[in-house]
Specification:
Blueprint lengths: L1 H4 L17 H4 L1 E4 L3 E5 L9 E5 L11 H22 L3 E5 L16 E6 L5 H7 L8 H8 L15
Antiparallel strand pairs: 1-2, 2-3, 3-5, 4-5
Length: 159
């Protein structure tokens, strides 16, 4: 409800500064040469991550081959980290292109990754449209950040 009813920023939340000083507050886990990994501030489940190109673009067909390669490798890297940190029984990976497809921020492409467990939506989502996220965002961030130490850094060779 905080996201739905709260004020919306005028600037794009995925257009991040090059300075890494606010990465923890912004929930940025890793920065690659063409993409970065960020936690969802309003997650469906604990560990909800996004892989996003730096470049402000709204469609998959607009990604360069280098960006597409890094997105794919970033999703694979995050899958391994997610399995290690959360031991999920499944993982949803998706991309919504455009508002009509369900993208909350349609102007800047972002790939969603949500760890899933059998029965994780339970009665809460059915009866009260509520989700239970059992861990504070910064606690999750601090717990999984070390898993991204080997993520190729900006300026390094591609994944």
């Amino acid at each position: 409800m905080q996201y739905i009813l709260g004020p919306k920023a005028d600037d794009c939340v995925f257009c991040i500064p090059t300075d890494t000083g606010q990465d923890r507050q912004r929930l940025i886990l890793a920065r690659g040469p063409h993409t970065f990994v960020i936690m969802n501030k309003f997650p469906y489940n604990s560990g909800h991550l996004m892989v996003t190109p730096y470049r402000h673009t709204s469609c998959l067909t607009e990604l360069t081959p280098e960006e597409m390669f890094e997105v794919s490798n970033g999703l694979a890297f995050c899958t391994a980290a997610m399995k290690k940190a959360f031991n999920p029984q499944g993982i949803n990976i998706g991309l919504n292109i455009g508002e009509a497809a369900g993208s909350g921020i349609a102007a800047h492409l972002h790939f969603q990754m949500v760890p899933r467990w059998n029965g994780d939506s339970s009665f809460m989502a059915v009866f009260s449209e509520t989700r239970v996220v059992p861990e504070l965002l910064l606690s999750t961030y601090d717990r999984i950040k070390p898993l991204f130490a080997d993520y190729p850094q900006r300026g390094d060779a591609a994944c």
